[in-house]
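User: Can you predict the 3D structure for this chain?
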Amino acid sequence: MGIRHRTSAQGRGLRTTLTIKLKRSYNLDAPKGVRGRNSDNTLIKKVMNWAPSIRLEDGMEKTYKWIYDEMTSGKASVVNALPRAVAAQ
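Assistant: Here is the predicted structure, written as structure tokens:
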């Protein structure tokens, strides 16, 4: 797994781009198709009057920043435990 971090000036401010390369393995017996990757919130909005409070892009930005900070902090954490274990082999 490799992570490359890049910050550039675009438009109204700075834009940070993370490029992450992962070694992937697929379970071909797992469910396939759109149902595994998309969320239709129509029913939960109708039944519970609930809708997401933040935009997907904002949530992803916050999540990726947290992962990056965990990976580069040097401290042991759930996020970087596996890459450290693999590197030690």
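The beta strands are 2-10, 13-21. The longest strand covers residues 2-10.
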